[in-house]
Design brief:
Blueprint (H helix, E strand, L loop, with lengths): L1 E5 L8 H19 L15 H11 L9 H21 L7 H8 L4 E6 L4 H10 L8 E3 L9 H14 L8 E5 L2 H10 L2 E5 L6 H5 L5 E3 L5 H8 L1
Length: 227
């Protein structure tokens, strides 16, 4: 039995990755800190929501934002701003990913999400794209800025929900960023990189993931390495 942990932005969903992520941060920081930011100045792909906000606040000259009480208020507001943007822009699945999820349901695997998103924000996004029901397990980025800490959280959640104690050699992260690869390495699990986000295949391969694919077109090959 394998535990397969999917990233959300860039792997499962397209529109949120390109539109909502920088917009949410910009809106939240303006709303709660009164500061205008340029989201492009700080690279946050693969960060947790908490980590991304802190990084952008520091980039805007806010000192010690991790200790600022306004940070917790802003993090709780993530889902509200995200809902407004989804209502305006919608969400779109990455091509081929739902077909992959459907086929994986017939294999000896447990599907989960490992994401920097807060739990309610992740659920909102995936429900909006009709994907939430595929996943039993979740590890989310509301309590940590260290993405690799989510690996142990996901394994623990899988044990609680399925009764299975997964060994790290049987755990895969499926992600689209360098930080996903680093997260898997630091967490001691395997990683499948798919170039469906901002980073191209050659960039991802330089980080030496266990497996790398350009997209989800070759589903049979992806399933072969995952199961």
């Amino acid at each position: 039995m394998k535990l397969l942990l999917f990233d959300i932005d860039g792997i499962l969903l397209k529109n949120i990755h390109s539109k909502s992520v920088p917009s949410v941060s910009k809106i939240l920081i303006k709303k709660h800190f009164g500061v205008e930011i340029d989201p492009k100045k700080v690279y946050v792909s693969g960060m947790t929501d908490r980590g991304a906000l802190i990084a952008r606040l520091k980039g805007a000259g806010i000192k010690n934002p991790e200790n600022d009480p306004r940070l917790e208020v802003a993090i709780k507001d993530f889902v509200n701003v995200t809902k407004e943007l989804i209502d305006e822009h919608g969400v779109e699945q990455v091509e081929g990913v739902e077909e992959l999820l459907k086929k994986l349901q017939n294999e000896k695997v447990v599907l989960g999400v490992l994401t920097g998103n807060t739990p309610d924000r992740a659920k909102l996004k995936l429900e909006s794209a009709n994907l939430w029901h595929y996943f039993k397990v979740g590890a989310f980025g509301h309590n940590t800025v260290v993405r690799s800490e989510l690996v142990a959280i996901a394994i623990k959640d899988a044990k609680e929900k399925t009764g299975i104690s997964f060994k790290k050699k049987d755990v895969f992260i499926i992600g689209d960023t360098i930080r996903d690869i680093q997260c898997a390495r630091e967490g001691g699990v395997k990683v499948v990189a798919v170039a469906t986000g901002k980073e191209d295949l050659e960039t991802l391969k330089k980080e030496k993931p266990d497996f790398a694919f350009r997209d989800f077109n070759d589903i049979d090959s992806i399933i072969q390495v995952l199961v």
